[in-house]
Design goal:
3 helices; alpha+beta
Length: about 140
């Protein structure tokens, strides 16, 4: 899927030791209803993110996957909900320092999805294996 010039967010997948664990967590949450994360403040550039951008997940200091951001809304306690597609899309792993909260990621700096070009076939591998290969900087 080709992305337009969107703005993305990055976030550490806290508590997920692998892509497989993240995938399982989001699938379980999707079974209970819409999947969203909460944050204290609405991103100032939310209009550049919603519906076009993705939330890129950081696991073990690597950007390894993304979940498209569907919209922003209200959450309990005056917080903001970031509604995401629960389907995890693997991306070409790229080193990224861990951080608290979320950070912006320009489209030009975002890694491409696996499964096209010279990465053909990698998307068919089990998520756990892809995560391990990314840790070793082999993909």
């Amino acid at each position: 899927m080709a992305r337009s010039m969107a703005l993305h967010l990055t976030k550490v997948a806290f508590g997920a030791a692998s892509v497989e664990a993240l995938t399982e967590r989001l699938a379980a949450r999707a079974a209970a209803g819409p999947v969203f994360l909460t944050t204290r403040y609405l991103p100032k550039r939310h209009d550049e993110v919603a519906g076009q951008g993705s939330l890129f997940w950081i696991i073990k200091h690597q950007l390894v996957a993304r979940s498209p951001i569907l919209s922003f809304g209200e959450a309990e306690g005056g917080r903001v909900a970031i509604h995401i597609d629960p389907v995890v899309r693997l991306v070409q792993a790229r080193a990224r320092r861990a951080h608290q909260g979320w950070r912006y990621l320009e489209d030009a700096d975002a890694p491409g999805d696996l499964g096209g070009g010279d990465a053909d076939g990698v998307a068919a591998l089990p998520a756990e294996l892809v995560g391990r290969l990314a840790e070793l900087a082999l993909i």
